[in-house]
Amino acid sequence: MGSPVGITLDRFIKSKQDDFPFASGELSQILRDIALASKIVNREINRAGLSNISGAYGSTNVQGEEQQNLDVVANIRFCRALTKGGEVCAIVSEEDDEVIDLQNSSGKYVVAMDPLDGSSNIDVNISIGTIFSIYRRVTPLGSPIQLEDVMQPGNKQVAAGYVLYGSSTMLVYTTGRGVNGFTYEHSLGEFFLSHPKMKAPLDGKIYSINEGLDSQIDEGLKQYIADCKAKNFSARYIGSLVADFHRNLLKGGIYIYPSTTKAPKGKLRLLYEANSLAFIAEQAGASASDGENRILDIIPDSLHQRTPLYIGSTEMVKTAEQTLREAK
Ligand code: AHG
Ligand code: MN
Ligand code: MN
Ligand code: MN
What we know:
This protein is of the alpha+beta class. It contains eight helices and 15 strands. Helix content is about 30%, strand content about 25%.
């Protein structure tokens, strides 16, 4: 029997508003802004094959990646919605080298986002996502934005979430009081609560890693992967972090993007991929580390810094960490 569908995201956000004495409607407004932008991006994605929106944009982002049109379109849509919403003073985006200062002196919040996750899957009709984190600014209102406003450890997040543009479009978020998932009903243009109080299985039998990296990873990780195979675990790797993470959160599993010889800090970005999903993971009873340290405790030292990521069912993350330790 499905979960109690019926409450819209808007009504759910309003019903939780009094959880935040200090935030009155501000945080709610930001979540509504993000939901609005995700509906617009969802429509662009669904039409990608029919409009000239697929393909490369023709420039390279600060990551050294060739930007896809949809990376740029999604970035514009989320920035525009957050600007119009009026509650945000600064944005860190995967697609922008520098902090985006919204020149909004009354904005109390900062958003870090990956506007389009899984770009390599856009043109081949495979699930992609959006990832976001929300922080309160730490410097005085009205003063110029400082780096300390945007480079906060993940344990300071006020909220985090992701949108999964998959076989259905879902928005999943936490404000530190559990994780709730909403499914988009296109015909009504509304997200409806479909996955209340999401909890991850403590253990699992799915491991997600790009095994093409085998020649570049530590002996300990090779051992962990061999142990997964010896236990007949399933290998599932979509190439879209949001999709792999969401499946593992629901079914139990671990997603690993490790340190490699070519990329010792791994590929994934701390501020708008690892931190956001780590907050959600822990709120759902799962775990997230860099193979040793809790992701949420990492003190950032640059906007687009990368980190190895081991995220998913707590028992699997612990076993992976232990195997890495024993191999040292
Ligand atoms: P993004 O598209 O936002 O740059 O992120 C892509 C990430 C993540 O979504 C995915 O799991 C990983 O890159 C895939 O990397 P590989 O192709 O190296 O496996
Ligand atoms: Mn990218
Ligand atoms: Mn990404
Ligand atoms: Mn991206």
